[in-house]
Amino acid sequence: MPAVENHQIVLASRPCGLPDASHLQLRATPAPEPREGQFHIRHSYIGLSPSARIRMGGDSAYGAGIALGEMVPGQTVGIVSRSRHPQFREGDTVVTNGGWQEYSLSSGKSALLIDPAEVSHQDALGVLGTSGLTAFVGLTTYGRPASGETLLVSAASGSVGSIVGQIGLRLGCRVVGITGGPEKCAYLTQTLGFHAAVDHRAGDFTTALAAACPGGVDIYFENVGGTVRDAAWSLMADFGRVVLCGMIAEYNDMTSSNGPSWFPILSKRLVVSGFLLRDHLDRAQEYQARAMEWISQGQLRMRYDISDGLATAPAAFARMLAGSNFGKSLVRLAHD
Amino acid sequence: MPAVENHQIVLASRPCGLPDASHLQLRATPAPEPREGQFHIRHSYIGLSPSARIRMGGDSAYGAGIALGEMVPGQTVGIVSRSRHPQFREGDTVVTNGGWQEYSLSSGKSALLIDPAEVSHQDALGVLGTSGLTAFVGLTTYGRPASGETLLVSAASGSVGSIVGQIGLRLGCRVVGITGGPEKCAYLTQTLGFHAAVDHRAGDFTTALAAACPGGVDIYFENVGGTVRDAAWSLMADFGRVVLCGMIAEYNDMTSSNGPSWFPILSKRLVVSGFLLRDHLDRAQEYQARAMEWISQGQLRMRYDISDGLATAPAAFARMLAGSNFGKSLVRLAHD
User: Are A256 and B266 in contact (CB < 8 Å)?
Assistant: First the structure.
């Protein structure tokens, strides 16, 4: 077997605002050989996640930063191409945190074996991946939905938001999604079955949102921050729960903007909770079992926004941060 | 029995800022006679509560407003002076919501019978009254303190805050109080046994607060809002809980000010909860039983700020809203 060349994307400089080719650069390295207890994976897809943007800014309260010259982290799916590990064999499909590169090594730790007859590579990274688990943990643990309650989701056509809304539907909620543009709104109501969708780019956004939530909002699943959050905030019902999962609209800002007034927390007896997936990884099996059942019944699906080739990752990442993607952003690797 | 004259304080006009004699006026009315199933109470003390200020502003998200010409509501303690009720007899000591007046009628609904051999009239309105119950419900239900955790309380020498801190001590917390001025700080550490007290009027407040909470704040019991809240916010520890009980610093404002950035909610996985006592009145018996035990052991006490005569109520109320009181504000009625 001749030595294989691996390509990866590394952080060349820290972005201020949206990252571009000056911050994220392609580098060629030899593909590493597995030692005893390891296996070698040829990635088919890399999943792009907004949280990587925070880590590009350096260490923060959110977690450790990516060092300059270091590869960008990310979840991957691929085929085991060579194994010196007892449980993973050549040809197995595995999900790992392989990073933004073509090949990776794994010791099997936190690697998830996938049956490709049951789940596509895309769904393995999408519905069953960190986005889906994030949606499930956030909604069930912190949103605590009851049948008949109104669930409002921002970034609703995105990878987390679309799963939050669909799980809400399965649990009997009235589901309203906030997204950008008429095409995404139609996707939410017509394809996913949301009860209503509101376009945050439309001029009448605030009025339309209030009209879509006539009884107020019992659960607000917050993915974006900024003005969308403030509009949702004014509609919270008594005893409402706000689940804070992300604030993508504010990740590129260098300043930390104020939140809304705390008066409604008191007068409406709200609970505002934040969570990070890393504290809840022990719930992956529970989620995957339920998600597999919903997927097989056609009740849980995700749309993917695919860009081809590792070199397209930086542009696809910037497009996602700008909200121009439509569905979970994946980079497909051809390996020709 | 000759007809008795009753005096009460009514809302004459809506205040903007601190209320004064132009907003709150004394009125003489005949003392009402009890009908069958009612009893007549001669008040000994009226408790002043900041929430009355919100209701003076009119209807709000916080609750119904006080109509112009209507008496100001408030909790009272007193002696049954005439009864046509089977369970309440002449000479009984009762706590009721009698309002800012000398005499009231009660049907017994939500009236609490007090044994004056066990509890003073002051403690009946203070430690055992709504302030104490508010402290107990907020801390145990929403703060969920664990032994060894750091509990930070604002308005710590006030009626709610001082009880929050003392219950925290009984439950094994490291308790830090925020209050105004060296005298109140000394009261917290020397009389009540708080581990530390920080003066929010001192020039080095932010630095001193951080030094008093070296491991961060696990529970912040929030009574005031404004800049004190913002200083506490920056010290929250991972998985911290913020219990929002009041925002007295903002009650006189006509505008609703912004809250702090939501980033820490996400990065530190915080839970911010608001509550109103009226949703938790069913816990009064549980609290009173525990409080009586702590009182008898000398482990729960309250300081009172007493002003004499109904006519002093408006000035005492304004003094409390301005933070110039020291202890639970009570108006004592002489009945000579």
Answer: no
